[in-house]
Amino acid sequence: MSPFLVTSLLFGLIFGQTASLCAPSEYTIHVEKRECAYCLAINTTICAGFCMTRDSNGKKLLLKSALSQNVCTYKEMLYRTALIPGCPHHTIPYYSYPVAVSCKCGKCNTDYSDCVRERVRTNYCTKPQKLCNL
C-alpha cells in the first residue's frame, strides 16, 4: 500500500466523525386524536443522516475503544406545541413535538429515541388534514 493511502485511511478512521452527514432534516408528522375532527400535518425537523461507524466483526482483534456504533441523534432540541383543530371541549387539543436545533453522531439515547429498529410507518392521516407550519 502506498503511504498516501495508509495516511488517508488513518485520517479517515481518526477524524471520520467530521465527515459524517448528520444534520437537521425537514420532516412531517401526522397527528390525530380519535375525538377530534381533523388530522394535523406538522412540519418540523428531525436528526437524520450518516454517521461514521466501525464494523464490529473484528471485535476480537480490536480494542473496545476502536469499535463504535454511532447514530445521528439530537445535540440540541426544543419542544413546540400545536393545537389540533376540531376537538370537542372535553378533549385536550394540544400536541407537543420535538424540533431538532442541532444534531451529532453519538450513542443512541433511549430516553427519546427508538434505538433498536425502525418503527412501523403510520405517518398518514385517516381524517381530513390541516397543515401546521410553525
Automatic annotation (TrEMBL):
Organism superkingdom: Eukaryota
Protein localization: Secreted
Gene3D superfamilies noted in UniProt: Cystine-knot cytokines (2.10.90.10)
Signal peptide boundaries: 1-20
Keywords: Disulfide bond, Glycoprotein, Hormone, Secreted, Signal
Record-linked InterPro entries: Cystine-knot_cytokine, Glyco_hormone_CN, Gonadotropin_bsu, Gonadotropin_bsu_CS
Domain Glycoprotein hormone subunit beta: 21-125
Protein name: Thyrotropin subunit beta
Gene: Tshb
